[in-house]
Amino acid sequence: MEREHPEKKYVFPDLVFMEFMTAVALTVILLAWALLVNAPLLEMANPGISENPSKAPWYFVGLQELLVYFDPWMAGVMIPAVIIMCLMLIPYLDRNTQGVGRYTFSIRRFAVINYLFGFSMWIALILIGYFLRGPNWQLYWPWESWETIRQAEENTWNLPPLIGISGLAIYFCAGMIIPKLVRIKFYERHGFKRYVLVMLSILLMYFVPIKIFLRLAFDIRYVLVTPWFNV
Length: 231
Description:
With about 230 residues, the chain is an all-alpha fold. The protein has six helices and no strands. Among the domains are: about 45 residues, no CATH class; about 80 residues, no CATH class. Helix content is about 60%, strand content about 0%. The model has no long low-confidence stretch (mean pLDDT about 85).
């Protein structure tokens, strides 16, 4: 009995044509945007006056927004490095051969949901930092005037070391154990090493919005304070 081979789609011309048309459409959009919207050129810089707020280019505003919630070493070095490493590991961790080369949500629900969550979170940080941050890096709604200067918040506090360590241990241990018990096939399909790397990447990603929530809701600046770094 002959095995049924799944239908194959070739890179050329199917994929290449779609990518080419997408590139053309994006180029047209960028050209139209550049022609219709003037560049926000400012007056000549004065070295004796610091701009308030001083914002990074839009592609770095997300990192600048993270500085509100994380230690500078964590927001500027560790988080970008972890993002790059996790994205590089995806081809080596994904053992699912179904839906390769196709955007099939039903087959790759776990991967698509988590990737879109991380991507949407990064876009949200850029939008908040670029459009909603005013003087002293305080939040201003688009209809609020920057003439009313708000002072930086100074009533933040840090969790005690014991509570911070316990909370982090519970978060990561539960994040490793619970999915293994609920989704046994997921663990068996990936194996121990791949499972640990996948879940560690997911837990690190979700820790970012959790930390932001703790800061906004409870004014918690750092979960764990050490002589070397703060979390």
